[in-house]
């Protein structure tokens, strides 16, 4: 690992080097904006060569994705706190999505995901196995007894995928004119919530037919 530069304080490990690159990128974005931040900017911020940065990240979008991902961790904490006391699966998912649509564009690090388009979690990355698994893990933190609602691990993965697909559309292609929270909540309650509300009934769809 190259130690040239680094403000006279070379990192003690690859993990530290990566984190310092991520932090330097965040500072550059604050100054220049995400679209004008380059690998050269990040290297200059750290006092290292571009090749040193390349040893840890192949593209500037990879680093920006990490900046956004670290912001996502604190965002999830806020969302889970917001949902405390909401134990109904359908209500929790709807309120969680309303919270995301309202909050993500105002969170500097999370908004990077939108600005990078198809290269990130809110573009084609929406359907990667890693993103869906992260979404399912996030859902598991909701104050909901998923098992009691007949929603198992596979169901959570499917739910996470549809939520990510919907969020991608709502965030990148908002309605014109923009929907306020009341209209968005009504929309989600009409078209998304029923799928969760009827989960228990549909867990064994053949039962009523067999008893007739």
Looking at this protein, list some descriptive labels:
212 residues; mainly alpha; 0% strand; disordered C terminus
Task: Please give a structural write-up.
This protein has 212 residues and is mainly alpha-helical. The protein has twelve helices and no strands. The termini are far apart.
Termini separation comes to: 71 Å
Low-confidence stretches: 200-212
How confident is the prediction overall: mean pLDDT?
A: 83
Approximate helicity band: 55-70%
Discrete helix count: 12
The chain-level structural class is mainly alpha
Q: What fraction of residues sit in β-strands? A: under 5%
Radius of gyration: 21 Å
Give the overall shape, derived from the CA principal axes. Answer: elongated
Briefly, what is this?
Helix 1 packs across helix 4. This protein is an all-alpha fold and 212 residues long.
SSE layout and pairings?
Elements: H1 14-32, H2 39-46, H3 50-54, H4 60-82, H5 89-103, H6 108-115, H7 129-140, H8 153-172, H9 181-191, H10 193-197, H11 199-202, H12 207-210
Helix pairs in contact: 1-2, 1-4, 4-6, 5-8, 5-9, 7-8
């Amino acid at each position: 690992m190259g130690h040239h530069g680094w403000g006279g304080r070379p990192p003690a490990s690859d993990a530290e080097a990566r984190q310092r690159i991520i932090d330097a990128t965040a500072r550059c974005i604050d100054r220049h904006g995400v679209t004008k931040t380059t690998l050269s900017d990040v290297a200059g911020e750290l006092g290292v060569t571009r090749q040193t940065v390349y040893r840890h990240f192949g593209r500037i979008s990879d680093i920006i994705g990490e900046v956004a991902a670290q912001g996502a961790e604190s965002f999830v904490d806020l969302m889970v706190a917001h949902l405390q006391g909401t134990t109904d699966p359908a209500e929790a998912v709807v309120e969680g999505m309303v919270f995301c649509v309202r909050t993500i564009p105002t969170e500097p690090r999370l908004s990077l995901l939108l600005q990078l388009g198809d290269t990130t979690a809110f573009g084609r990355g929406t359907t990667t196995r890693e993103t869906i698994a992260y979404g399912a893990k996030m859902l598991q933190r909701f104050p909901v007894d998923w098992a009691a609602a007949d929603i198992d691990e596979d169901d959570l993965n499917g739910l996470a995928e549809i939520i990510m697909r919907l969020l991608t559309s709502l965030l990148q292609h908002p309605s014109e004119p923009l929907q306020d929270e009341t209209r968005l909540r009504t929309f989600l309650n009409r078209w998304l919530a029923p799928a969760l509300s009827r989960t228990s009934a549909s867990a064994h769809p053949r039962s009523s037919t067999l008893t007739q």
